[in-house]
Design a protein that fits this description.
Elements: H1 3-19, H2 24-37, H3 43-50, H4 53-68, H5 73-82, H6 86-101, H7 106-119, H8 129-140, H9 148-159, H10 171-188, E1 208-212, E2 234-241, E3 244-246, E4 260-265, E5 279-282, H11 287-291, E6 294-299, H12 310-313, H13 315-319, E7 321-328, E8 331-332, E9 347-352, H14 362-365, E10 366-370, H15 380-398, H16 404-417, H17 423-429, H18 432-450, H19 453-464, H20 469-487, H21 490-508, H22 513-523, H23 534-540, H24 547-572
Helix pairs in contact: 1-2, 2-18, 3-18, 4-9, 4-16, 5-7, 6-8, 6-10, 7-8, 7-23, 8-10, 8-23, 9-21, 9-22, 10-24, 15-16, 18-21, 19-21, 20-21, 20-22, 21-22, 22-24
């Protein structure tokens, strides 16, 4: 397979990633297997990619983070962070978020603070959530373990036969850039909307209620027999019977006199209920009771619901809950809820059953924003053990006394022995898709390099930067990565550009480290478009944002970030 054909196939991969119709894990796996079958790369290279030490380190780190994210620490400091003037509260929030994200998974940090910020009444959440997401990225670029992108780049470095990156090798550039961008955010965040609670639609606007009258022929018959399950645009969510709430509603449930039926969906299609004799519509008389049964959640990036409909996954059976409404950013979605393809970051208003909190798939699929559901927290002693253990592992790795992977494996074993983590929890939350993406991406990168495709692109970059020398080529590699991370994902951008960066450094006879850093920092430079980074999607619906909010706030940050990286990397890592 020639270099040109490999480049054409990479172009097709990029188009499919941008379209977003097929999950990245599926695309990268198919391309990697295809290259092996076509003889572009060897089978051994594919197997080696999935056992890459840096990739295994990333997976173990994410499993250890499952314990750290359950610590009550963030809940306890939230009140202190958010009191006082908005500007100072925002600065404190960004500073703490950046610090925590330097060592913890930034998705976990944002997920832990998301509900706290959404529930607090001091400052409109829309003024804080985008800065929260950006600060988690800025903190992540300062250390090797701060973001999965840095660890992914490290896996490519090791795969290329180069020395692994150090724990604080990113700090020389990352820390000044993070401080510069946080200061810039203090000004650009003023452009964010003030979406206060009273400006948002109330949960009751999602409901339609009807009472079964004494003379109704529906009495004594089941929901199925009365044909109340297949209505035009409406869905029977709950039944209020003698001050008792039945949720979810079984198709075999027999209706009784004075039952209050609660419908959701296209509530404007009230005429669908007019064909049922003895069913009287009335106002929102049970809103207080319903409100005690409501939970608002955001679909997590690792959720099995992404790109699927409620009907496809049988949502009610899976979670013992009914979806009252779906919000995407500032817009409440209308139509038949069961037929709407869901996206990561969508906000769902759920009417939950009594055993909803016992479901074991909640953490993997949702970030809980509001409601009575509380995730199980660590006890004080457990929290202390988890954080102290993690701190010791990071310190020993930074001092080159114990390899990071070894330390994390020991810590993971200790968390399992003390039952802070359980094997069932590890099985539920194992980042299988990320493992597939990165392992396959390593193979794709190897194919791009071995076929000569990366060299062709490097020659083109060298030609285009003619007259600007190696510094111009370095800027070109950084900008290509930045553009790709905005329109696809950060890990995909790193995978596609890394072999090009190495080939470009080789073409100029330069040290590869500045180009490695260009890829690493460029792959984390997602500030303008919300769909390229998971934390942006997490805050998109809770903040009631629009695309333009990210553009107004993120463009100045992106410019400051780019200027800082382009200036500092060549100074700290000479060509």
């Amino acid at each position: 397979m020639s270099a040109y054909l490999v480049l054409a196939s990479i172009g097709a991969l990029l188009v499919l990633l941008i379209q977003g119709r097929v999950p990245p894990a599926v695309l990268f796996t198919c391309w990697a297997v295809g290259y092996v079958l076509l003889g572009v790369t060897e089978q051994q290279a594919l197997l080696t990619s999935f056992s890459n030490p840096a990739l295994i380190t990333l997976l173990v780190l994410m499993l250890v983070s499952l314990a750290l994210e359950r610590s009550p620490l963030l809940d306890r400091v939230s009140d202190t962070l958010l009191k006082g003037r908005e500007s100072m509260a925002s600065l404190r929030l960004m500073g703490v978020t950046a610090f925590l994200s330097a060592f913890l998974n930034n998705t976990a940090v944002v997920g832990s603070l998301l509900g706290v910020i959404s529930r607090q009444g001091y400052i409109p959440a829309s003024r804080l959530l985008i800065p929260l997401s950006y600060a988690s990225i800025l903190g992540g670029i300062t250390t090797l373990v701060g973001t999965s992108t840095n660890l992914v780049v490290n896996s490519f470095v090791i795969n290329a036969g180069l020395p692994p990156l150090g724990m604080f090798q990113f700090t020389l550039v990352g820390l000044p850039v993070a401080l510069l961008c946080i200061l810039g955010l203090m000004f650009s965040a003023r452009l964010l909307p003030q979406n206060r609670v009273q400006d948002q639609e109330t949960p009751q606007s999602y409901f339609l209620e009807a009472q079964v009258m004494a003379d109704s022929p529906l009495i004594g018959k089941s929901i199925e027999a009365n044909q109340l399950r297949n209505l035009n645009g409406l869905f029977l969510l709950e039944i209020l019977r003698n001050d008792r709430l039945l949720s979810p509603v079984s198709p075999d449930e027999v209706l009784q006199q004075d039952d209050v039926l609660v419908f959701t969906g296209e509530v404007e299609k009230v005429q669908a209920l007019q064909r049922f004799p003895g069913l009287q519509l009335f106002g929102n008389g049970v809103d207080r009771l319903l409100a005690s049964n409501l939970v608002e959640v955001v679909i997590a990036h690792e959720s099995e619901l992404a790109n699927r409909t409620l009907r496809e996954v049988d949502f009610r059976t899976l979670f013992n809950a009914g979806v009252v409404g779906i919000r995407r950013g500032k817009r409440r979605l209308t139509g038949q809820l069961g037929q709407i393809p869901l996206r990561v970051g969508d906000s769902l208003l759920l009417a939950v059953g009594p055993d909803f909190t016992d479901q074991r798939n909640i953490d993997r699929n949702f970030h809980v924003i509001s409601g009575t559901l509380q995730r199980p927290k660590l006890h004080k002693r457990q929290s202390l053990l988890a954080f102290c253990g993690f701190g010791i592992v990071i310190a020993l790795a930074a001092a080159s006394m114990v390899p990071l992977l070894n330390g994390l494996l020991v810590l993971l074993a200790a968390l399992l022995v003390t039952r802070i983590l359980t094997l069932s929890e590890l099985r539920r939350r194992f980042p299988f898709e990320l493992w597939l993406i990165i392992g396959s991406a390593l193979t794709v990168a190897k194919a791009l390099e071995s076929s000569g495709g990366a060299q062709l692109v490097a020659d083109a970059v060298r030609s285009l930067s003619s007259g600007y020398g190696v510094y111009g080529a370095f800027i070109g590699v950084f900008l290509i990565t930045l553009i790709l991370t905005e329109i696809v994902t950060n890990n995909a951008a790193a995978a596609l550009v890394f072999p090009i960066g190495l080939s470009t450094a080789s073409a100029f006879g330069a040290d590869p480290m500045p180009f490695i850093m260009a890829v690493a920092f460029g792959a984390s430079a997602c500030f303008i478009i919300p769909f390229g980074y998971q934390t942006h999607l997490m805050v998109y619906s809770p903040g009631r944002y629009r695309m333009v909010d990210y553009l107004k706030t993120g463009l100045p940050v992106s410019l400051l970030y780019s200027a800082g990286v382009i200036t500092l990397v060549p100074l700290m890592f000479p060509f």
